[in-house]
Structures are given as C-alpha cells and as structure tokens.
Amino acid sequence: MTSEAPSPASLPASSSPVRRVAWASMIGTSLESFDFYVFAYFSAYFIGPLFFDPLGQFGGTLAAFATIGVAFVVRPLGAAIFGHMGDRLGRRATLLWTIGIMGVATGLIGLLPTYAQAGWLGAVLLVLLRVAQGLSLGGEWGGSILLATEHSSPVKRAFYAAVPQLGSPVGSILSAVVFIVMTLALPAEELAAWGWRIPFLLAIPLLAVSLYLRLTIDETPVFKAVVREQRRDRVPFATMFRAQPTALVIAFGAALLGIGSYSLMNTYTINYGVTTLGFTFQELLVATTIGGLLQLVTIPLFGWWATRVGSARVVAYGALGTLLITFPMYWLLQFASFPVLVGTMIVGGILPTMSWAALGGLMNDLFADHYRYSALSVAYAVAAAVSGFIPLLTTLLGESTGYVWWHPGVVLALLSAITLVSARAAARMRHAPISEDGREVQPAAV
C-alpha cells in the first residue's frame, strides 16, 4: 500500500482536552485490570470449590487456574478482532466495545449459579465469560495507548503513552484491597456463601464511569486523517504482517519484561514466598500493594523521562537494570525479614516498571497509523499470552533444580535480556519521525 505523507496542517486538531482523554484511557485500563485480577485473587480460594467441587481440592484448584489461562490464550484472537475494528471503525468506538464486554462479563460472573445450585452449568458459563474477558483484554491495551497518544502532540506523546500504564497498578491495588477487606470483614463461610460475588458485581458501577468518560471524548485526530485521506486498509491485520514483520517481533520482545515480570512477581513469587520462604500470604500481598502504590509515582516520572531521551531508550535502561539486580535480589530474599521483603519487592519492581512505563511510546513509534491498532494489540497480546505461562515454567524449573534460590532469577534475566535487545533494535528503526514543528510525519510509502 502506498500513501502520501499528510502535511502537519492537514491533521485535524483534537476537540477533546488531552488530560481528559488520558483519564479516560487510564480509567478504562484500570477497570480491565481490576476485573482480571479480582478473578485471579479469588480463584484459588473460592472458584474451585464453588464451580468444580466434584474434581476435589487439587482438581478444583487446577481447574480454577486453568480458567485464568483460558483468558490469556484467547487474547491474541481478541487482538486480531478488535485491532481490525480499531483500524477500520475507529479507536473510540472499539474501546467502547472492549470496556463494555469486560464490565458486563465480570458482573455476570458475580451472578453465576454454583455447582451446588445448578451443577456444571455454572462452570460452563464461567469459562465462556472468561473467554469474553480475554477477548476484551486483547483489544483494550493497544486502543488505550492510541487514544492517549493520538490526541497528544508528538513532543509529549511518550508521557501520555505512559498514562494508560497506570491502569495495571491501579487495578491491582483495588483488587488487592477488596480481597483484604473482604477476608477481614467476613468469615470464610459467608465469603463462600455469598461474599465472593461482591467484587465481581462492583464491575458494574465501574463500567458506568468508564463508559461515561469514553463517550465524552472524540475520535483521535490521527484516525480522522486516515479516514479523510482514504488510507484505511481493507484487512489491516494482513497489511501489518506484510509491511512490518520485523517490527512486530521487536514489539513482542520489548513487551516481555513489563508483562512477564508482573506475572512472575505477583503470581509465582507470592506462592514461592509462602511455600518456600515462609512468609504469609497477607504479608506478600501487602508488599506487592506497596510496590503498586509506588508505581503510581514512578510510571508518570518514567513517562516524562521518555519525552527527554526517547521511549526505546527508557525501556532498554529498565531491562538492563533488571538484568543487573536479578540474581542479587533473589539471593537476598533467602534471608529477608518483612521490611527487607518490602524493600526488595520495591527495588525489584522499579526497574521493570521503567520498561513497562515506556512500552506504549516505543510501540507507537514503530508502526504506521493505518494499521497501528492491529500491530500494538497483536504484539502485546502475544507477549501477554506467553507471559501467562511464566509461573508454570518457573515452577517446572524450580522442581527440576530442587527450588534452588536462583531459579526465578533465570527466568527474569531471560526476560530482561530479550527486552534489552528488542529495545535497542526499536531505537534504530523508529517508524514515525517528528518534523521540526513537532508533528508526526508518515513515510511516503509503506
């Protein structure tokens, strides 16, 4: 496909304030993260006994964790579907669909009949709703990044690309707080009887807020220009693979540390800390929540830094720093008291957060605007699907090595190395140069 580069004057100005757009992006990703992690927190304790009771304790727990994996597996399919919609119908319209599906699916989980009430019907419906959640997540992240970046000026684009990344710690903090409050306020019997439904039903009012914010903003100026200049592809997904296959691989590699480290630290390390290091689940949950609160400060700071030195360079710095501290961090955990645990989780979280904060800006710079939604969504979703298996792979590595102290460090170091190489490659193939007046200039031919 060939397209002429639009002049800076031809790009329409956004009528939606950039800060309101950024809020709409961040609130939406927060809801997505909250919905997804609420299920993760409650699955081990309640989902198995409630919906898979005939399978026994081990089988029910395994089935509950499998429903988490289902949502990761279908993410790339959701990325393909909603990526196509985002490049054909628009960023804003597509994001209304993704947030709506996620909110409704999560709320309906809170209304499902248990095995004692309706047999296997509840389990079947639960899996279907998890599939819906996974499809929605496949299209949410890329669209949220584009909603923020394509409304902003190129000079501040890296900063606004970091704002939707706040949704992950916000959603994680909210879900952890809900879990802590529920377990403290209600005895286990009442939680199992009816209290487990409350966190899922909370998605409905959160959905209303998210929909309101996204309905009050406009379509992005970049997509309006693509439509006006008739540069939409019939099948953006196919154009993306034909035009920039190398960039897709680079974007996938750049995303691995930011997503994979969260899966490793918040899933495997929590279980490892309880079973091997001797901490309580509540202590580890508090430590990760403190780390999430710190991210609310560090993510905007790293986004601002990316406007100065470039998103790809910030991702690379975060990957290099994580690589250097990985093995010392896990060695120190062997002797950690609770204060040392908190400090280690904070230090071990800041450097991967650097790569996470600048990831959206890096990906935005790699791809042409007429298939950018598809490209961002697919690269991110595939990285997320791979990251979903990191706890399992780390467990297998731990079992084969007798759970020696350095076994999680091998996984984190590998993720860091892949992201470091990918970020360096991304810095050398920036796709969207910026002209002297600060506007994005598309290449004459793709």
The CATH topology is given as Growth Hormone, Chain: A
- Give the CATH class: Mainly Alpha
Query: How many angstroms separate the termini?
Result: 6 Å
Alpha-beta content class? mainly alpha
CATH superfamily: MFS general substrate transporter like domains
Domains (count):
1
The Rg value, from CA coordinates, equals 21 Å
Spell out the helices and strands N to C.
HHHHHHHHHHHHHHHHHHHHH
Largest sheet: none
Uncertain segments are 1-15, 431-446
Proportion of helical residues: over 70%
CATH architectural arrangement:
Up-down Bundle
Strand content: under 5%
Query: Helix count?
Result: 21
List how many beta strands DSSP finds: 0
Principal-axis shape: globular
How would you describe this structure to a colleague?
With 446 residues, the chain is mostly helical. It has a single domain (8-427), classed as MFS general substrate transporter like domains (Growth Hormone, Chain: A, Up-down Bundle), CATH 1.20.1250.20. The chain is built from 21 helices and no strands. It has helices at residues 18-51, 56-73, 75-88, 91-109, 115-118, 121-149, 157-162, 167-185, 188-195, 197-201, 203-215, 221-228, 236-243, 245-275, 281-309, 311-333, 338-357, 359-366, 372-387, 390-400, 407-427. α2 (56-73) packs parallel to α6 (121-149). The radius of gyration is 21 Å and the shape is globular. The model is unreliable at 1-15 and 431-446 (pLDDT under 50).
State the main characteristics.
446 residues, Growth Hormone, Chain: A, disordered C terminus, mainly alpha, disordered N terminus, 21 helices, single chain
